[in-house]
Specification:
8% of the residues lie in helices and 44% in strands. It is built from three helices and 13 strands. β4 and β5 form a beta hairpin.
Length: 189
């Protein structure tokens, strides 16, 4: 379980075949790994992955074929940035919303525009997921907890405040790019 409050931006070191699956090696970009262990859950670009190996400042995880079919992880290449969040521990503050890291689908950026000091994104959601979205409800994009501002047909808007733009990968999104989408677990159930 995660909160959608990104703790750091990592970078893909390598992405290679591991018996039909994908093994990612990820540099944590200064995020401390001293308390991380093999077997821990780490949210990578919104996807819950199990750390296979942990070293100082980096870890490796295997991505199954199933995960590759419903996320953007298969398109990652060395140097690509990814949002990182270690699993929520008992007693940690819940600053975002409950995030499972079980991505529901891939969404596409339709519009990016400045809105005062914020950045406004319009996202096209896969049609089966629209029923789980609501204005003022929560949504997760690439592991970032956000509030749905508006909703029309299969498109919804989110606003990135300056802090979110600065500490996540979302501030660099461009029209046409895809993101991992997880609907609010409370809305789903």
């Amino acid at each position: 379980m995660f909160t959608g409050i990104v703790k750091g931006i990592g970078r893909i070191v390598s992405a290679g075949n591991a018996g039909g699956a994908l093994e990612l090696a990820i540099d944590t970009g200064g995020l401390a790994t001293g308390n991380w262990h093999a077997g821990d859950s780490i949210c990578v670009a919104g996807v819950c992955l199990t750390a296979a190996r942990v070293d100082a400042g980096r870890f490796a995880a295997c991505v199954s074929r199933e995960t590759l079919t419903c996320t953007t992880l298969g398109s990652l290449a060395p140097g690509d940035p990814v949002n990182l969040e270690p699993a929520l521990a008992a007693g940690d503050p819940l600053g975002g919303h409950y995030v499972t890291g079980h991505v529901d689908g891939v969404a596409r950026v339709i519009e990016v525009r400045e809105d005062a000091s914020s950045l406004r994104l319009t996202i096209e959601a896969p049609p089966p997921l629209v029923r789980y979205l609501a204005p003022k409800g929560s949504v997760t994009l690439d592991g970032v907890s956000l509030t749905v501002i508006d909703l029309a047909d299969d498109r919804f808007g989110v606003n990135l405040v300056p802090h979110t733009r600065a500490i996540t990968t979302l501030g660099a999104l461009r029209v046409g790019q895809t993101v991992n989408l997880e609907v609010d677990v409370l809305a789903r159930y």
